[in-house]
Amino acid sequence: MAGLTKIYKNGRGVKDITFDVYTGDIFGFLGPNGAGKTTVMKGITGLNTIQKGNVRILGYDLNFQFESAMRNVGSIIETADVYEYMSAYENLKFVSRFYKNVNEEDIDNLLELVNLTKYKQEKAGKFSLGMKQRLALARALLPNPKLIILDEPTNGLDIEGTVQMRNLIKELAEKRKMTFFISSHLVHEVELMCNKVAIIHEGRLVNSGISIESIKKDFNSLEDFYLDQVKEGGKV
Amino acid sequence: MDSLKANVINEVRKLFLKKKTLAYLILMAMMSFLTALFISNIQAKLIFIAVNSISYPIMLLAIFTNSFLPLFVFMAASDLFPGEIADRTLKLVLTMPISRFKIYISKLIAISSYALLNFCVIFFVSLLSALCLNIKITSITNVALSYLADLVPALILVIFASFIVQFFRSGSTALISSIFIFIAVKTLSLFNTLVNNNLFTTYLNWSSLWLASGTNPFRELNLLLLLLAYGIIFFTAGYYLFDRNEV
């Protein structure tokens, strides 16, 4: 992503966001509420139009090769929404129609992975928030994408649900070699889940992707690093 | 093309998974039969009848194209465009490997197929009811041609509805506003002949013009071009608004 800029009519937005996410990363995008995380997430999935800059996913330019770029991307943006009038199975079938290599067995396997096999034929409208989150994650994972974009994936989840989601992400990154780009305002969550982090504050990038391991050499925690970085930028 | 095909199936499925879509189809079928039953009863009891029983399916077509069809088309368009923005489900398809142009086309195809299905239901139920209840039909070919002809303005109506609903972000507001806009346009055309002659809404029951005054190839071609022009304008404007839509 290079120079991504999107300013809304009210003057808020993001300016000149540049960073790279590499294969195998669990890349955390950390920032407080209203910092512009979702704006960036929407920009890189084509949900909003960016005014400046460009986004390349696996070498494909999002503006000119949208279909090719999104073929290897799974995403949950803003909230884990699903079609509430469809069953869990139908929600996944909806996605599978876009991919030739996804079959019924893949749907069943994924429902098992997110612990929803029992509720396969139940309408998603009757699901709890945690179940909807898991179904949304199954939708994102179904085509076996190389990159998963998750916007605040643990938002609204209880402790157990948060731990389950975190473990699932780590497992997928390790076993299926998937790359994750995850936004969050929870510093501890990012510290526990990710191996790299970029910090955004008031629409600007404070740093563009540092390994959490190297951060821990100089700071006690990611929280200390975050406060130090934001202070250096003169924002706190 | 694969992604377009996939999304056409998805959009049609979405429309028909909603109970009201099927309920309205059944309602139309029932209405077609009950109207036929009513006509056959008054035919038996009265000497003078106001209804031309010979063209019952065509009479029903005139009622359908000017009242129920716009309602159903606005309802389907409101569900598939602003309804999905309000439900926050539009992003689920926007993040799939399919361009916005193909998404727009597939939604138009889904709404058109719903309109087409309504035409089929009314055609078959009105024909069967007329045959069962002994309401005379002189020419089935004429009836079939009328239904086919009225499909053209129905498709323009689908494109128009898909354009209008782009201005709204809630399904119910879009539906109510579309109905009011349609009524306003219809009312306006009542007071001004020039406006009336040049609005596509006047020709929703296009076939009635042929039946009333015979077929004039040049006039029909002129009307066809007028309808196509409306189609191109509404399609372009509708897609432009959809493409700029930020979810």
From TrEMBL, chain A:
Residues 2-227 form the ABC transporter domain. Its EC number is 3.6.3.-. It comes from the Bacteria. Keywords: ATP-binding, Hydrolase, Nucleotide-binding, Transport. GO terms for molecular function: ATP binding; ATP hydrolysis activity. Coiled coil: none annotated. InterPro entries: AAA+_ATPase, ABC_transporter-like_ATP-bd, ABC_transporter-like_CS, P-loop_NTPase. Pfam families: ABC_tran. Belongs to the ABC transporter superfamily. This is Putative ABC transporter ATP-binding protein YxlF. The lineage of its organism: Bacteria, Bacillati, Bacillota, Clostridia, Eubacteriales.
Automatic annotation (TrEMBL), chain B:
Pfam families: ABC2_membrane_4 (PF12730). GO terms for cellular component: plasma membrane. One of its GO terms (molecular function) is ABC-type transporter activity. Keywords: Membrane, Transmembrane, Transmembrane helix. Coiled coil: none annotated. The chain crosses the membrane at residues 21-42, 54-77, 111-135, 147-168, 174-200, 221-242. This is ABC-2 family transporter protein. The lineage of its organism: Bacteria, Bacillati, Bacillota, Clostridia, Eubacteriales.
